[in-house]
């Protein structure tokens, strides 16, 4: 009886390990895809680009530095945002 319990436990442990390994592989692929998308997006950014921020705010890039961008969201309203807060380049 104890031998049966040990066998079942071992089989369950193997299935759990396989599941964890598969989840790690899928997670790494998604992270790589996301990083690739962000690098492509950052390459498209330049002053004058229309963008959508993570909060859903539409604007136009006025000025950029290494880590931040100044985005005009309305007449005489410019905001400083982290470049990673830019979700999408519209045009």
TrEMBL record:
Any idea which UniProt keywords this protein has?
A: Cell membrane, Membrane, Protein transport, Translocation, Transmembrane, Transmembrane helix, Transport
Q: How does it sit in the membrane?
A: Single-pass membrane protein
Q: Where in the cell is it found?
A: Cell membrane
Spans traversing the lipid bilayer: 6-26
GO BP term, pick one: protein transport
Listed Pfam families: YajC
- Give the record's GO CC terms: plasma membrane
Protein name in UniProt:
Preprotein translocase subunit YajC
Biological source species: Anaerococcus nagyae
């Amino acid at each position: 009886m104890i031998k049966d319990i040990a066998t079942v436990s071992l089989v369950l442990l193997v299935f759990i390990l396989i599941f964890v390994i598969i989840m790690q592989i899928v997670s790494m692929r998604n992270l790589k895809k996301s990083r690739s998308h962000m690098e492509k997006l950052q390459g498209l950014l330049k002053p004058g680009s229309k963008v959508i921020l993570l909060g859903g705010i539409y604007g136009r890039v006025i000025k950029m530095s290494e880590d931040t961008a100044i985005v005009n969201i309305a007449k005489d309203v410019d905001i400083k945002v982290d470049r990673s807060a830019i979700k999408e380049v519209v045009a």
